[in-house]
Design brief:
The structure holds two protein chains of two kinds.
Chain A (H helix, E strand, L loop, with lengths): L3 H8 L5 H16 L4 H103 L5 H66 L5 H64 L6 H61 L4
Chain B lengths: L1 E7 L2 E6 L3 E6 L13 E7 L2 E7 H6 L10 E6 L6 E6 L6 E2 L18 E7 L2 E6 L1 H4 L2 H10 L4
Parallel strand pairs in B: 2-10, 5-7
Antiparallel strand pairs in B: 1-2, 1-8, 3-6, 4-5, 6-7, 9-10
Classes of the chains: A mainly alpha, B mainly beta.
């Protein structure tokens, strides 16, 4: 492969310079050997003309060479400017990877908290369902109403345990809310990083264009980096939407937990009243049994609503996790595109 | 040729990358009360106060909205070593266009000589802006007066 200097020498006719200089030497020599004076004078005139043309040509070629050198220096400067964008992009991609890792951690913690909530809610709903079934079975034949009253002492501690569990559930939902906020912050940080990557890759494309033919490869890679950054931005926007939905569900969950607690309290009051009546010697009426059963069923239906909220949260979490995996893939692709850009820069043709 | 497009509503405009120093996020601007029309203010760019025009205001009469894609196109001017910032919306991409495919809009725009030829690419019609024409004599004079180190 020919060097730019040799290409320049050929394109500007510098390779013909030795022939011209030979002419300058040979013609006067030929003139000096001439026999008659007019031929000798003519020889000197021709030699003078050839020398003047040669000098003019040499001057012209020197100017051309200087211009070429300036152009080469300018190109090197452009290339240096272009390569200067690479470290910034590398830092940003590292920040992006770190941001994705922190988002992954926050999401994992969120999922663990959600799983705890799910277990508590499922346990509460099951327990309430069992209690209501016992009561319904006892209360159905009016002649065995007494045995229903006998199951009340079992129901009270069970409801108190549920009340305590509901308090724990409230705390878990609050923690879930905090985790959701952490995820939202991580997503916002990611969005800022992808925005900066987009900006830097735009400037890399502008610098590449200035570098002319040498920069065309860079333009394509900068475009790819921009595409990946935009995709990252769109994906983190998707996660932000899931997080917003998860926030709504968590808020609904917190309200459901409050309702659940108040219903459990109500249930405890009803059961205690019935127990008091039983202790005073009054046999539990079927209306009282119904009231207790209704209270338990209300608690159970709220627990079911909580389960639905927890399931919805699980779905949002799954979707967010899927997008998170996509983000991680994008970060790897970004790093790889950046490596290509750097390799292309350091090994750019001369 | 590479151009940096931006949007005013549903319409795309573009500045050639050769006319640009680069793209910057929207900086904190120092307002210049009584300045020429379209001048949003100035900001300190590498030790020099650089004027910023609102492209959205010039092209639609409404200010550009602050958003992630609202950025400054830092343009070359006819004043040596003096840049001009152009605040534009949705500056997030670069387009490679055919330099021979530009065609004049077919109408004479005496009041907006900065509006250049049109080109349709990928279903998007882009109009090129000629930055030097954006500098009215009044604005050029204002920039000249700013031409001192910060």
């Amino acid at each position: 492969m020919k060097s730019p200097a040799s290409r320049c020498v050929e394109s500007r006719g510098i390779h013909r310079l030795p022939a011209v200089l030979t002419g300058v030497v040979v013609i006067p020599a030929w003139a000096a050997e001439g026999v008659d004076a007019p031929a000798g004078v003519l020889g000197w005139v021709v030699a003078g003309l050839v020398a003047a043309v040669a000098l003019w040509r040499v001057r012209q070629l020197t100017q051309t060479l200087r211009a070429e050198r300036r152009k080469q220096e300018a190109l090197l400067r452009e290339q240096a400017g272009l390569l200067a964008t690479v470290p910034g992009l590398r830092d940003l991609v590292q920040q992006l990877t770190a941001g994705i890792a922190s988002l992954q951690t926050a999401t994992d913690i969120h999922r663990t908290a959600l799983s705890e909530v799910n277990q508590s809610v499922a346990g509460a709903a099951r327990r309430l369902g069992d209690l209501a079934l016992v009561l319904e079975a006892d209360a159905s034949p009016p002649e065995v109403a007494e045995s229903a009253a006998s199951s009340l002492p079992e129901i009270e501690p069970a409801l108190l345990a549920l009340d305590a569990a509901a308090g724990g559930l409230g705390e878990k939902f609050t923690r879930l809310h905090e985790r959701t906020d952490e995820i939202a912050q991580a997503v916002a940080a990611l969005d800022k990083v992808s925005e900066r990557i987009n900006l830097l890759s735009l400037n890399a494309a502008i610098e590449s264009e200035k570098a002319g033919d040498r920069g065309h490869g860079f333009v394509a890679i900068a475009q790819e980096i921009r595409r990946l950054a935009d995709h990252t931005s769109a994906t983190s926007l998707g996660i932000a939407r899931h997080v917003a939905r998860a926030r709504e569900v968590v808020s609904e969950g917190v309200m459901s937990v409050e309702r659940f607690q108040s219903e459990v309290h109500g249930g405890v009051t009803v059961v205690r009243k019935s127990m008091g009546a039983a202790q005073a010697g009054h046999t539990g009426s079927s209306q009282e049994d119904e009231r207790i059963t209704r209270a338990l069923r209300d608690c159970q239906s709220t627990a079911q609503a909580l389960r639905v909220s927890a399931r919805a949260l699980g779905t949002e979490d799954e979707r967010a996790a899927e997008r998170l995996r996509e983000l991680a893939r994008l970060a790897v692709q970004l790093a790889s595109a950046l490596q290509t850009m750097q390799a292309g820069g350091s090994g750019a043709p001369d | 040729m590479l151009v940096i497009p931006f949007w005013v509503g549903q319409e795309a405009y573009a500045v050639a990358s050769a006319d640009l120093y680069g793209v910057l996020p929207r900086p904190l601007l120092r307002s210049m009360p009584g300045g020429p029309a379209g001048l949003l203010g100035v900001f300190n760019y590498r030790g020099r106060w650089t004027p910023v025009l609102d492209a959205h205001l010039l092209l639609s009469g409404e200010h550009a909205q602050p958003a992630l894609g609202t950025r400054i196109l830092l343009c070359h001017t006819q004043v040596p070593d003096v840049a001009l910032g152009l605040l534009c919306e949705k500056v997030t991409d670069a387009l490679s266009l055919d330099p021979a495919a530009w065609s004049p809009p077919g109408v004479s725009l005496r009041d907006s000589p900065w509006l250049g030829p049109l080109q349709t690419s990928g279903g998007i019609t882009v109009q090129r802006l000629f930055i030097p024409h954006l500098l009215t004599p009044e604005l050029a004079a204002a920039i000249d007066s700013l031409d001192s180190p910060a």
